[in-house]
Design brief:
Strand content: 5-15%
Strand order of the largest sheet: 1-2
Order of helices and strands: HEEEEHH
Oligomer: single chain
CATH class: Mainly Alpha
Structural class: alpha+beta
Bound molecules: zinc ion
CATH architecture: Orthogonal Bundle
Length: about 110
């Protein structure tokens, strides 16, 4: 059975970690704004496809796995928005912050994405 598969074991540990971090209810470690932990999938009205919500919750490794960080150690992970996590690597922090501000501002006026 798959129980001896290390990838499966890692997946389970990761799922448990996600739950533990979610239970702490922390804000995004990148932009500092609250995370709506209930956001997950949404249907894009433009193409009708199910997508991950850009402000949904993701776990980010503080020390990247590629540099030896553990993906399953709670001291090496932090909660972030999916969009923040994706834009983090760009090094364009100012542009990114403006992007997030406009995103958050829009959200107050409309529930459309
Ligand atoms: Zn964020």
């Amino acid at each position: 059975m798959a129980s001896s598969n290390p990838r499966y074991a890692n997946f389970t540990a990761r799922a448990n970690l996600r739950k533990r971090v979610k239970a702490m209810g922390l804000p995004c470690a990148i932009c500092g704004k609250p995370i709506d932990y209930d956001l997950d999938w949404y249907v894009d009205p433009r193409d009708g496809k199910r997508k991950r919500h850009p402000l949904s919750y993701e776990l980010d490794e503080i020390v990247p796995i590629s540099r030896g960080g553990s993906p399953t150690d709670i001291s090496n992970v932090q909660p972030v928005h999916r969009a923040c996590n994706q834009m983090k690597g760009d090094g364009t922090t100012k542009r990114y912050k403006r992007f997030m501000q406009s995103r958050h501002a829009k959200r107050e006026h409309s529930r459309e994405w």
